[in-house]
Write a structure and sequence with these properties.
Mean pLDDT: 78
Radius of gyration: 34 Å
Helix content: 25-40%
Strand content: 15-25%
CATH class of one domain: Alpha Beta
């Protein structure tokens, strides 16, 4: 009499229902995931079209050209003199606003130095001005 031994099953993972499982997991994660827009500060940015005109006595203009020359209210000044000029203007008008207008080719190093000088005299009301870009319709 011959006894047949039972063959051992070949180990393996059944993949016939794998697609169903993946599809169900995909639906589950899509239904339970919460998407946040941003975690930053809630800031409302101003628009250039809606800007207000300031009275000239409440405004000091600082101009910087592409060569690094600095002008405060149409008077050429050196970088080291900005503190004194703005300090006098702030004593006259504590609500003074400084409009910072720089050429687009001006070096950032010069603008940063001016900002440091303004910080030294506590001139914190600074506005960066630019020209409105006009678009042409064809």
């Amino acid at each position: 009499m011959k006894i047949n031994k039972a063959k051992k099953p070949i180990p393996g993972i059944p993949t016939s229902s794998m697609g169903d499982i993946v599809f169900l997991l995909l639906i589950f994660f899509m239904a339970t995931t919460i998407f946040k827009k941003e975690n930053g500060l809630a800031v409302t940015l101003p628009r250039a079209e809606a800007s207000k005109k300031q009275k000239t006595e409440q405004l000091a203009n600082i101009w910087v050209d592409q060569n690094g020359r600095i002008s405060v209210n149409d008077k050429l000044v050196y970088l080291v003199d900005i503190q004194n000029v703005i300090k006098v203007k702030l004593e006259e008008n504590p609500m003074l606003m400084i409009a910072f207008k720089a050429d687009n080719r001006a070096k950032y190093e010069v603008m940063n130095s001016i900002m440091e000088e303004l910080k030294a005299v506590n001139a914190v009301r600074v506005v960066f001005s630019s020209d409105l870009e006009t678009t042409r319709t064809r």
